[in-house]
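Lab notebook, design round three. We kept the backbone fixed and only want residue identities now. Task for the bench partner: fill in a sequence for the structure below.
Input structure tokens:
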């Protein structure tokens, strides 16, 4: 009967022979490990490049979306200003310049649109509009309101108020409106060059 030590040697010998019979050529070659390292490195680089490209596209998309919204806001501000200038011009020509009684001035007070200006208070794109346009629009409405109010209160004579209002309207029509129009049209052209046609929703002028 074989001793436990002999049995252990027999088992160990058979195991050793099996290990020798196994094919370890790939594992024994340094090229295998180098290839695996390149595979891992290529995977990491591929994931990084894909993530970087995706982030870049997301930033570009967000920028274009913001510019498109800014265009519509600038265009709307321009149109509202133009409408208010027209309303004040009609008021000045038809009423104020005739130096009518106070009651007539009050009954014919011009109604100015403020929808866009009020909406801009809640828009994240408002301060993307160049400050000269925001400041110009604000000062125009404040000055127009002041002239109308003082004319009705007889602080200003009607003739003087009419001249003040006409000068204000002339200035806005000569500077603020054309500059704002040029600005939003340049932005529209830039967006068009990037494949975004903002004229699709533009009203026929």
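Proposed sequence:
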């Amino acid at each position: 009967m074989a001793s436990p030590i002999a049995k252990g040697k027999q088992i160990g010998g058979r195991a050793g022979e099996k290990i020798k019979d196994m094919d370890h050529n790939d594992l024994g070659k340094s090229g295998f490990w180098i290839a695996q390292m390149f595979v891992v490195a290529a995977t990491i680089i591929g994931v990084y490049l894909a993530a970087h490209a995706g982030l870049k596209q997301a930033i570009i998309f967000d920028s274009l979306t913001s510019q498109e919204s800014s265009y519509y806001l600038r265009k709307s501000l321009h149109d509202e200003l133009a409408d208010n200038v027209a309303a004040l011009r009609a008021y000045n020509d038809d009423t104020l310049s005739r130096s009518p009684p106070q009651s007539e001035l009050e009954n014919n007070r011009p109604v100015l649109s403020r929808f866009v200006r009020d909406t801009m208070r809640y828009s994240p794109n408002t301060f993307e509009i160049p400050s000269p346009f925001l400041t110009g629009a604000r000062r125009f409405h404040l000055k127009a309101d002041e002239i109308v109010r003082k004319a009705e209160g007889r602080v200003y004579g009607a003739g003087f108020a009419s001249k003040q209002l006409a000068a204000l309207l002339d200035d806005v029509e000569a500077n603020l409106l054309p500059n704002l129009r040029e600005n939003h049209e340049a932005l529209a052209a830039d967006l068009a060059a990037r494949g975004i046609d903002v004229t699709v929703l533009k009203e026929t002028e």
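Keep this in mind before ordering anything: Residues 147 and 164 are 7 Å apart (CA to CA).
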